[in-house]
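2024-03-11 09:14:02 DEBUG pipeline.ingest accepted 1 chain
2024-03-11 09:14:02 DEBUG pipeline.ingest length=131
2024-03-11 09:14:03 DEBUG pipeline.predict start
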Amino acid sequence: MCDYSLMHVKSRPASVGDKLRTSNFGTGTRGFAAPSDPGTAVCVLPGTELAFTSEIAVYGASAPTRHKTAIFRQINRDQPHIHHDALELPDGQTLLLTFLCEGQEATVLQLPAKPTSIEQAQAQERVAFAG
C-alpha cells in the first residue's frame, strides 16, 4: 500500500529499473506512477534509491533543488491522516513527495537491503494507516 491518501488507487510495488513519474491521482496527493500506466500508483519501500532525470522541483519553491538523487523515506509514521511519503536529499533535507511538481521522471536504482533484524524490518514497513 502507498501513502494513506492513495489507498483507493490501484497500486503495485516498485522494482529496480522502474521508470517513474510524479503524478496526481486526484486524491489530494501526488505519488509515483509508471509513464506507461499513469493510473496505477507505484509504491516505493523506505530506503529505495531514486535518480531523477533533472533537478528535483517542488511546488512553491523559487528554484529546483540542486539534487537529482534521493532516498525514499516515510516520516511522521506515528501520526495518522497526514502524508508520510518523503524524499531525503543528499544534503539531508527531507521533502514530502506530495509537494513535488507533477511530471518529474525518476528511475529506481536500488531497493533497500533485506532486513537482518527486527528493527531493520520495522524500518522498512510502510505505514498502515487507512483514511
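2024-03-11 09:14:41 DEBUG pipeline.report The longest strand covers residues 37-43.
2024-03-11 09:14:41 DEBUG pipeline.predict end
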